Amino acid sequence: MGSLEELYSKLKEAFLSFDFDGVKGMVREALSMGASPNDVIEKALRPAMEEAGRRFERGEFFLAELVVAGDLFKEVMDEILVPEIQKRGGSTRTLGTVVIGTVRGDLHDIGKSIVATMLRAAGFNVIDLGVDVPPEKFVEEAIRNKADIVAMSALLTTTMLEMKNVIEALKKAGIRDRVKVVVGGAAVTEDYAKSIGADGYGKDAVEAVRVCKQLLGIKE
Ligand code: B1M
């Protein structure tokens, strides 16, 4: 049996040739070798996705290939990794309520859904609003669900600007001081998060969970 590093490298190759069965087999193998679901995401699946994005930029992949890559990622999550994360989560406490969504104009949902899954596994009550969520919907759902945290994801440099609009809408509705705002997604940086007045930023799902806990004063 080879190392996990070797397996991850084969897994990335299989991902980029859209070998669905091969990818699923290797994800299961990595878990059986002791890898955590988050390691499989961050060390194999996400880097493979990023390479698909670079190939798209270079004109080597077309939109159709990005769609298939998205479908493959989602199948692996739904069939293998989400059940595994839930199985390992095991939190019996309810830590707080998070309203999460991908901002208006943005249809990327894979990263946001991973963050939602990890938050649930950690014990948060998560209301997932899906993609292309307008500011007023974030506000409405935050009020309706008495949210402790409003969490936003954006993958496009154009749509990340919407995050500021959501924060403005929360202020206008008079609830900005009652909710914490956490942001993330490939387009977003910690500096950008600070510049729009967000309370927290996560570079990946594990960090997002850590930041949400910290903001609510919950000890690890
Ligand atoms: Co899109 N796309 N895409 N795409 N796509 C990017 C983002 C891009 C960087 C690709 C590229 O050109 N290199 C580029 C954006 C360029 C830019 O703005 N600078 C791009 C483009 C241009 C587009 C279109 C405009 C293409 C077109 O139509 N011509 C179009 C836009 C559609 C729209 O949204 N309006 C488009 C469409 C699509 C598909 C539908 C084909 C598909 C999405 C499928 C789906 O989501 N159901 C797609 C894909 C797959 C990608 C890439 C290749 C991969 C995204 C992904 O799923 N990554 C992407 C390239 C890239 O990201 N490098 C790209 C895996 C996922 C696990 O990572 O979402 O980053 P990510 O989430 C991470 C962290 O960021 C973090 O945790 C997650 C787990 O680690 N995180 C948070 C995420 N949200 C968080 C929230 C938090 C905290 C952490 O707190 C709340």
Describe the model.
This protein is of the alpha/beta class and 220 residues long. It has two domains: 4-87, Methionine synthase domain (Methyltransferase, Methionine Synthase (B12-binding Domains), Chain A, domain 1); 97-215, 3-Layer(aba) Sandwich (Rossmann fold). The protein has nine helices and five strands. It has helices spanning 4-16, 20-32, 37-57, 63-89, 110-122, 135-144, 162-172, 190-195, 205-215, and strands at residues 97-102, 125-128, 149-153, 180-184, 200-202. A five-stranded parallel beta sheet has the order 2-1-3-4-5, with helices on both faces. It is globular and about 55 Å long. The mean pLDDT is 96. It binds CO-5-methoxybenzimidazolylcobamide. CO-5-methoxybenzimidazolylcobamide binds at residues 41, 46, 49-50, 52-53, 56-57, 63, 66-67, 69-70, 105-112, 114-115, 151-153, 155-157, 182-187, 202, 204-205, 208. CO-5-methoxybenzimidazolylcobamide binds next to helix 3, helix 4, helix 5, strand 3 and strand 4.
Helix and strand layout, with pairings?
Elements (H helix, E strand, L loop, with lengths): L3 H13 L3 H13 L4 H21 L5 H27 L7 E6 L7 H13 L2 E4 L6 H10 L4 E5 L8 H11 L7 E5 L5 H6 L4 E3 L2 H11 L5
Parallel strand pairs: 1-2, 1-3, 3-4, 4-5
